[in-house]
Design goal:
33% of the residues lie in helices and 18% in strands. It is an alpha/beta fold. It has one domain: Vaccinia Virus protein VP39 (Rossmann fold), CATH 3.40.50.150. It is globular. Its EC number is 2.1.1.-. InterPro entries: Methyltransf_11 (IPR013216), SAM-dependent_MTases_sf (IPR029063). This is Class I SAM-dependent methyltransferase. Keywords: Methyltransferase, Transferase.
Amino acid sequence: MSVNVGVTDKGPSIDLAAWLQTPPGQHLLAWEQSQVDAAVADLFGFHALQLGMPELDGLQANRMPHRWRAGTDLRCEFDALPFESASLDLVLLPHALELADDAHALLREVERVLRPEGRLIIFGLNPASLWGLRQNVGRLRHSREPYLPRQGEFIGYWRLRDWLKLLSFEVEAARFGIYRPPLRTQAWLDRWQWVEGVGSRWWPVLGAVYFIQAIKRVHGMRLVGLARNQRAAAKKAPAVALNNHHKKR
């Protein structure tokens, strides 16, 4: 599964890596880093995987012994992961679904490699936000200076929850963030800092980005058997095609 990056047939575009170096990109990256650090710090298991956006070190606060970031520690096709079924305890998808050629295929593959009771964390840009509105208006006008990278497609929060439900994922935590208008400079973003508290209180679902943490449920599974299987799996890590040795912290 490839990712659409760079120039598109809709006009010149800044790619995601370059956009993350801009003031709004840095703001989004900082918010997501704080959210994921808090979420993964107390998630236990043996094997964790991040797919997409290597600029975000989504597993740095996690203590699982085997952690991989696609593009940094291993190279793989996102819809054909080099892991056995039910072998991972945590998968992180920071904007990977938006950039995937087939988001459904990616989710199905993630469901395959996750263990029962394994965790899935997703970050996505919210089309029902000021940032999403600004981007869509720019696309309609074929703007030469889009606010966000042109590649990828927004996936609505409630739409994504429906997809997860069909794959037997249960959402256990969700939140929105970034309520400032789609401004380009740090000075103007700072001037609108006050709106963060107001937005999270009065219109929480209109944040520019959303975070979802879900758990893979398998109906009728006995947790005693699951614990026994996890202890057995801990004796060896899944086989993967590594660029470098896996991280141990």
